[in-house]
Amino acid sequence: MTADQATGLPEYPVNDPALLKLSPAELRDLQSERLRAMVHHVHRNAPFWRRRLDAAGIGPAGINGVRDVARLPTCTKADLLADQERDPPFGGYTCTPPAQWLKVFTTSGTAGKPLRRVFSRRDWRLILDWVARQPPLTGPGEIVVLTTPVDAMMGATVLTDAVQRRGGLVFQAGTRPDPQKVEAIAELRPAVVAGSPSYLLHLADVAEGAGIDLSRCGVRTVFAWGEPGCAVEATSRRLLERFGAGNLVDALGMTELMPLGGNCPYSADLHLSDDFVFVECLRPDRDEPVPPGHLGELTYTNMVGDTQPLLRYRSGDLGVLSDGSACACGSVGTRIVGSIQGRADDMIWYRGANIFPSAVEAVVRGMHDLGDEYRLVRSRDADTLTVQVESRARLDGPARAALGDAAAEALRGAIRERVPVQVLDPGSLPRADGLRKARRVVDRG
Ligand SMILES: [Zn+2]
């Protein structure tokens, strides 16, 4: 292993098949070695990290391996945004000089101000090498219709570069009006359509309105990201049915971090790439681990990446980590069981129970007479909660009331609380726009 001239970080192999066969002990050694190098790297090259590590009284010499990770301070998006404000435009946590950079993006800004992100050539190569070890999405000459914009968006750009590297073509339809996206799918007959689950379902509605049946357009794979959607069986079933696709690929990544993982053909669980990221599951309110098998905030430490690597980044996503047991596919690597449950900000406390939008989604999209859209409206004191949904067809008063009751009853079975359901006419709720994540929780005064 040779050290990278520019950064001092080793030149890690990504495509070595032996990496995927490491025993848990070997993997831990590899992670420990990478963590030691990473802490040295950020301490040497980034004022932000030097300040934080020094304040926590922990230097690179204090980190011998992943068992010491809890000695490192955690960080949040708010910390990074404040640092970019203080030290614009990319923040004092940036560890490489501009001459090494290749790509610049921001986060989507769904929740507040977007965070700026730069990647070096080395970072980008590692990312594309990582994608290359996943099952190929397309063969040479096959087309992907990408329904989200590429502009300064990391996920869509990785997808484009990775598909092109394998000889596939990407039709970047992200900024086109909805009907043009539908036409592109109908006319190009792509092997893959890519986008966020709710937006793809919306496009299927647009197609239906135009008399186009997207399930007959030759789509083999739906490639989705950005929502827990794919692990919600009702959503995944609707996506496969409406696009006539045989499989669904769910990608997990965060612009702040790197690609993190994705599902496998045998399970909806999200596999994490342990050589790329070390993950912990912490209590949402403090820096303490939750017991194995419990819900907590997923907190990531980059094992690779030289430009803006993060140590113990509290992602705001809640999930449950696997307990070391093997997936049906044979992998014993870390998995997020049944995908991400939701954002910590979106979890609703209601009459002593916590409710995730994804639980509501599973019920709504499991009912044939309901459309795809839904939202949870709560009063500011969180005392009352209403679920708004849409009927597939326009209904008269009694039919609407009966459907609302049936939905409330189905919800009670899923979340153990009876929440009133308001059934609206088709098209009443705001549509997902393909760029930002759909807002599922709305506060009313
Ligand atoms: Zn698996």
Give the overall pLDDT as a whole number: 91
CATH homologous superfamily placement of the domain at 347-443: ANL, C-terminal domain
Q: List the total number of helices.
A: 10
Strand content: 15-25%
Descriptive account of the structure:
With 445 residues, the protein is an alpha/beta fold. The protein has a domain at 347-443: GMP Synthetase, Chain A, domain 3 (2-Layer Sandwich), CATH 3.30.300. It is 29% helix and 23% strand. It contains 10 helices and 20 strands. An 8-stranded mixed sheet has the order 4-3-5-6-7-8-9-13, with helices on both faces. Strands 10-11-12-14 form a 4-stranded antiparallel sheet. It has a 4-stranded mixed sheet with strand order 19-18-17-20. A hairpin with a 2-residue loop joins strand 15 and strand 16. Helix 1 crosses helix 2, helix 6 crosses helix 7 (197-209) and helix 9 packs across helix 10. The longest helix is centred in the N-terminal third of the chain and has 22 residues, at 24-45. The mean pLDDT is 91. It binds zinc ion. The site of zinc ion has 8 residues, from strand 9.
